[in-house]
Amino acid sequence: MDSMIIGRYLPLNSFIHKRDPRLKIGLLLLFLIAVFFDAGFIGYGILAAYVILCLLLSKISFKDVMKAMKPMIVMMLFLALFNLLFLNTGSVVCTLGPVKIYSGALKQTAYILIRLILIISMTTLLTACTKPLDLTLGLEKLFGPLKKVGFPTHEIAMMISIALRFIPTLLEETQRIMKAQASRGVDFQEGTFKEKVSAIVSLIIPLFISAFMRADDLANAMESRNYNPEATRTRYHQVKWNLGDTLSLVVSLVVISSVIALSFIL
Amino acid sequence: MSIEFKKVNYIYGENTPFSYIALKDVSLKIPQGSFTALIGHTGSGKSTLIQHINALLLPSNGEVDIDEFVIRAGEKPEVLKPLRKKAGLVFQFPEYQLFEETIEKDIIFGPMNFGMSEEDAKERAHKVLNLVGLDETYLDRSPFELSGGQKRRVAIAGILSMEPDILVLDEPTAGLDPQGAKEMLELFKKFQESGKTVIMVSHDMNHVLKYCDHVVVMNHGEVERYCDVDELFSERDYLESMSIDLPVITDFIQELNMGGFHINPSIKDIDELVNAIGGEYNG
Amino acid sequence: MANAVDINNLSFEYEEGAKTIDDISFSVPKGSYTVVLGHNGSGKSTIAKLIIGLLEPKTGDITVDGIHLDEEHLYDVREKVGIVFQNPDNQFIGSTVRDDIAFGLENLCVPTEEMEDIIQTYAEKVNMTDFLDHEPTKLSGGQKQRVAIAGILAMHPSIIILDEATSMLDPRGKIEINNLVHELNKTQNMTILSITHDIEEAALSDHVILLDNGHIIDEGTPDKVLTQKEELERIGLDVPFAYKISKKLHDSGYPIKPIINKEKLVKELCQLNLKK
Lengths: 266, 283, 276
Known about the structure:
The complex is a heterotrimer of chains A (266), B (283) and C (276). With 266 residues, chain A is mainly alpha-helical. Chain A contains eight helices and two strands; from the N terminus they run αααββααααα. In chain A, 68% of the residues lie in helices and 3% in strands. Chain C has a single domain (5-222), classed as Rossmann fold, CATH 3.40.50.300.
């Protein structure tokens, strides 16, 4: 669990950490779009430089970035192999026995790998440099306007924050239930398929039931404290836009738009 | 069915920056057939200690002997199941471990995991259900229709059906009303009286006084005291320093004695106390 | 002086035909410490949920601080009532102590600029200022309940209902909460309605309402209600310890009146003993 960098927040105090979450989410989305424009290797070079700059500013160690990549390596190799072997565009570059490798395949494979690396890096950057609750707040503010068309932005954001708050509690409860069932002879590690299924059932059902009970209690507690999702509420946490955010926005838009423009020129 | 801890240490999160010594040099011998209370402040190691009795936790140092089972630090025991059957552990709020469709199925879950046949387990379930004060009409019902107190009784039946020799209970009366608590404790007393060993973590000294014969006092991971119940409650200052309350009756007697009475401080029964007070008055 | 809560002919059924609450009527005087006493399953927690409008009664009405509880005034009533539930985890909504206290303030549309001071003030009242940035998993049960109380106080209720708020706590936690609540009652004249099965807590209250099977079977001062030995035993409760001793002594000819207060009993017995 410790090596799972993807999705985990790293409490550092960097330039990127201090940026407005709305900025970070918005830019990530634009970045992800830009990645799929074909501006050639020059375009990817620009995007890569941008990512490296962000990483440097984020104070996240290179080691941690590699850790984020680790789970993806197998998938990347698989994709690479698949494309190399089965894409038949362009001219033949070399032959390995019965297999022919095409130039088009090489280019595509390179593109796929580069895109994957860029996407993973930037997403990891976002989650590592933004507290989950700030992310939720950022999402809520960004998608706020959708409320007007009936999209339950606030309710979803509230659900996410509560889910986040309960993750450690539920993990503790899972541990407790596992111990209780182990005391009744359940082996969570070894056994026949049937035994393993029975073991999981003896864990999942109490967890679900307890989760539903919690939800019920929580709803009562929230209502008792005058919660009304449809009414206006003030907010304790605020997102504040400042100069650093404006500068970052300008620079990032320049980078992204130049890459997109390049894709049309080339 | 004796339980022995030999210089046991337990370290949570060993080799991580969060490592924390929960048990320090714990040596303890609990005789068969006793009803031993395990008391101490929250975080004193009680929960960690009891999880060593059925090998949910393995010692970081030292040795734990449960009858013929020897668990040494650093050695992973080959077979844990027989030990889990022999030492039945009931966690706090055990009603949260119920999961089967019917009460009968839930009660036979444990014994069947330990190899009992379904028919034997069902027979056992009927008996045990009566023991916890519920009748056969409950067998086909869903455990989730029941009240909290009834669910708890079903959960405990599920452990008793395993036919353990040792019963380890973590605050079994938490959240129960006085009548419910009394019924539960009477059940455990009967279990002990049939020759078994009971260990109970408790915060209620009135229960400890009434039902237990020995008490282990834990403090910051160490066994501070292991003695008779009467002996422990006679030491007012010590208990105050440990923030342990006296049982209501013992406290009352001690206050009377401080005010001039001479009443036997190990009286546990109200009628006896009333006679003693009346006796002194009449000279 | 109006009552904090008035309940008239209240009935409620979870299921058709099974009356959980059966035609009960009672009042909670302002500034009092009132206890609703009953064994588990007597219907007492249901009363709390009815008062705050989480459940709708079948018959009868409820008035809180002069406001009649109905759909139109639901939120008005909820502003007046603060309720602490039994499970410390399942009412902790915020990700930290700060956030949890802020939750109620957000619901009441308190301006953002004012929130910081309010949070600080009420965290101080419950002695939790050192823990403001702690997550709930790092807090004890007693601490979590203290935070719940801070959150409620910040909403300036007229009455605080404790729905078995200490039954899942260890002794230290129980004492913390009971002391805090008694202090609020004595120093701030906060009306307290405590729902419990704890006889000794009831012995320290101003007013006891005895509930069994959805009916009120007795009501009055602790001295009146908690001395009905047969009645209490019949419904699975017990009389206070001091009463047991003093009644038995009294019945055997000892010159003492039965009382429910332990400290007073010790004093009286010692005085009598000296005099003889």
